[in-house]
Specification:
The structure is a homotetramer. By secondary structure, the first copy, chain A, is mainly α. Helix content of chain A is about 65%, strand content about 0%. Chains in contact: A-B, C-D. Chains A and B meet through helix 6, helix 7, helix 8 and helix 9 of A and helix 6, helix 7, helix 8 and helix 9 of B. Chain B binds a DNA duplex through helix 2 and helix 3.
DNA sequence: GTCTAATCGAGACGGTACGTCGGGTCTTTGA
DNA sequence: TCAAAGACCCGACGTACCGTCTCGATTAGAC
């Protein structure tokens, strides 16, 4: 009686050293080269690895770079500790989101991968999973919390609000001017959206 | 009294037939091929033209395709006739904006060019000029009109609102699911943004 | 005790099929096209081979054609069996030398390669090795034999004689008229050179 | 009674300044560039001349360079003053012939044109006329004079002797080693050929 | 003085080929 | 079976020239 899943596939097991070497090389190239100057051949040569060892495990350049990005470069957004100031939370979240792409390496990599995602529908899904879905989830938490503590209107169209704020983020990102995604922009967004988000005051008072 | 502009440069003048042939070929290829399957060589061969005749006038594939797009494919947004219903105008504008990319050809081309814009900073500027700047201008007109007729709040942060709405548009566009940019989404955007845009009612309650 | 020469270099070994295919294609093209109408691209396409597979192993068109020539076209001069008639041997040798270029294919190829050798000093050395050096060696054998059996003068300036006879051969060859290198010309050369080569008769008069 | 040749064709006459400019440019390029690096385009650009003005009067690069060579570079062999020492004359002639190609510019140009002559049968005729025919004539004069004054044998096969000596010259030229065509080689040739050329002494005495 | 005709500089044109790069696959030896 | 190495076919790159063509401008003799 054995487990249906083979406890160990036959043959030489995958070498983790090779895997790491490939990701290291990719991450290293990302630091100095623009995404489109990177090629599988360069990664393989830099990693002292056969090209086949890349193609065996990944689908192509975008795949490898995405892996290197998530394991080597990606600035993980730390979990948000919700406070009792929902607008402050939102502002913080946006600031942090913007800050996460202030590193040119991160920015350039995302642009390269974004480009690839536009050209390759299959890769777009992976790209979306890494770069978009997780952010939406975090976004949602922030908004939900605001609603829960009564500072955001109960009938908020959460998805659309995320489309708007997230959209503004991506829009500026792909527009390419590097200075745009700063704290001031985060503040502008919150300020402009406040009337759309804020729960109506029951006793007619405007914001304190 | 002669014009200071040189009446005619020396040498054989540029052949418009060649130019048209190149743009025709590009536009034709765009109809059947994805952007990344198009190459200068294919354009030249389809257009029965020497490659040099392309490189002489354009910088590369993206440049040519952009030209073909603007002259052959681009769905020009007709000028908006502002009405006395500013929210209706906004909704109309968004619907039309979304409709303009509902044609798969247009959508695919924009995605390809967007990809190129991410990879080539120089091309990004051209891309921005064609795809972004003009839309922002039209957007601004709609918002300014709403302010002028008193339906939009006077202190509206126009630029940020455009970043939000335009951002939502691009965000969905590059996310790639083709069904997203429909009239319902336009309506959702307007509905969600209404409190942020609407001029406060002088005598009391906002619209129920 | 192992051989110091690496028993086998790493990586996929060179494909002999590819090599043969390239040489076949080159030889085939030489049959129908003049040397200057042949291009690497044509060879590659005819051989169903990537251009890189040519550039990987040869330096350019001249290199490939030279290889094809030596392996496919070259009419090897059979080894001369020296007789006791040294002048007859010389005459035979010249006839055979001339006959070897009587095939238009050979002649045209040599002219093309000769042209290349004039333009590219590096290739000239290879050309010289294939077309000139070996002939000089054979020439030398014939002359040395004549000296050895006492029919050629002992103080013969072998190198200069070779320059003269070989020179006459090349001179006519590159002059291009195809009829010139015939048996009659060989006979003329031998007749004219005889007094310069023949060993002086010990007892008096030279041959009347 | 007018000349049958049209006294003047209609239209703008050919500009000699243009012609000179083209030849100057060609000659100038020959000084610094190898023949195969020269192109019609470079000549035209250097001469500040339209390409058509070259093609109008010459057939191609080889044609122009040949013209530039003959008018700008060619070292004219001065007419030989025959003396009463026919072997001395021959030696002088060869020395001068060899000296004429000792200038690298001359040598390189001749090699380039020789290459072209091998590739283009039509050009070969022009090449032969300029580089070969005239030398043969001079050669013939030297040999005829030697015969006339009784120092060369009366039954000399002049054409074959020229083939041999001229051949040796071209053979060394196209072999490319620059040091070969020196006075010593001229002397070797004369020495080796002497028995083949010298008129037999009537009274059995050997030379001098 | 036009008119006609050919030339001139300039440079665009359709082509062919260059030599290089990279993609993704295949074929070795060796672990 | 995996891995390093690297050859393989293929397609495209951007460049260089080819020889031809089309411009406006010019330079003559013919009318």
């Amino acid at each position: 009686m054995s487990l249906p899943t083979s406890p160990r596939p036959p043959g030489r097991p995958r070498s983790d050293a090779t895997r790491q070497s490939i990701l290291d090389a990719s991450a290293h190239l990302l630091e100095t080269e623009s995404y489109d100057k990177i090629s599988i051949e360069r990664i393989a040569s830099e990693a002292k690895v056969g090209k086949q060892s890349i193609y065996r495990w990944w689908g192509g350049k975008a795949d490898v770079v995405l892996a290197a990005y998530t394991e080597r470069v990606l600035p993980r957004l730390p979990p948000r500790a919700p406070t009792d100031d929902a607008f402050g939370d939102l502002d913080d979240f946006l600031r942090q989101l913007f800050a996460s792409v202030s590193v040119p390496l991160v920015r350039r990599t995302m642009q390269g991968l974004l480009a690839e995602a536009q050209l390759d529908p299959e890769f777009r899904l992976k790209f979306y999973g890494v770069f978009v879905a997780s952010r939406r989830t975090l976004f949602k938490q922030v908004l939900r919390h605001g609603i829960a503590i009564g500072q955001f209107r109960a009938d908020l169209d959460v998805e659309t609000i995320i489309d708007l704020l997230n959209g503004a983020f991506w829009y500026r990102l792909l527009s390419g001017s590097e200075e745009d995604l700063d704290d001031a922009f985060a503040a502008s967004l919150v300020r402009s959206m406040r009337p759309a988000i804020e729960a109506p005051k029951p006793t007619g008072k405007s914001k304190k």
